Cation transporter (Sphingobacterium puteale), 331 residues
Amino acid sequence: MSKQTRLVLLSLFTGLGLMLIKFVAYFLTDSSAIFTDAAESIVNVIASGFAFYSIYLAAQPKDENHPYGHGKVEFFSVFLEGGLIFIAGAIILAKACYNIFFPAEITHLIQGIYLIGITSLINFAVGFYIMKRGRALGSITLIADGKHLQVDAYSTIGLILGLILMKLTGFQWIDVVISIILGLFILLNGYKLLRQSIGGLMDESDTELVQDVVAILERNRKDEWIDVHNLRVQRYGNELHVDCHLTLPNYLDLVKVHDEISAVDKIVNKEMSVRTEFFVHADPCLPQCCRYCQVADCPIRSEQFKGKIAWDMDKVTRNQKHFSYAVADQK
């Protein structure tokens, strides 16, 4: 059993146990706010169940029908989780609005607060652990699952504070107000997860990942690597697929070109925290490249070296060689 699978099972069984405790608290108190918390726990359990399946599927090797692997199923998992959270938020708001007109009598409030207080502590601890391990393993499913558990813990803390205030003041309407606020908070978090998953499915550029790759290339660049451009990064589960154009001296033979491309691949894989599949298109240099080419004793140089051009995200991601930029760091 993989590390990801064990973490999802931890989330699943934790969610089941906490859901039961929260519903006990709801039936004990008949509090609309506690019902809000209990309803979201159902989402936690369903989402963790699908996350378990998506982690299993994402770990399957590439095949003829899925040459890039099965990693993108993790975005579907995040989409489902976000959708369920959004639906739960809508149901919670509807229940809160109903209770405005038909309020329920709240009983055994202190016992209910104790019960959901315990669930909050457990949720936060498990969510923190799963998020930390998810980042280390490069799994967006685990990160989303852990974040959801922590969001649930934060909302429960807010719920507890509101219920304590209601107990001290005796104002029953506070219960409905808390439920509405938490419902809106849950809707917002559901929207954020939906937005993240749709962006991943549409291959939206991950600025942070691209910056990491560019920084690695800049730190390790060789004189023969005249420029890198048209760099793109796609995430497939816990793997990255990167492609770019690498400008090399046009007099290099095929073996040397292959060696340089392999060197780029090895450096990025060594320094990135996730497995990276690199596709490099080799471009021959042009006379206009001479002004920033750092190759010493070049046999075909047509213009003197003017200065080094620093590689940054703007230059490396554009589909053009760097001779169109002003030369920086003049010598």
Q: What stands out?
A: The chain has a mean pLDDT of 82. The first strand starts at residue 227 and ends at 236. The CA atoms of residues 94 and 180 lie 9 Å apart.
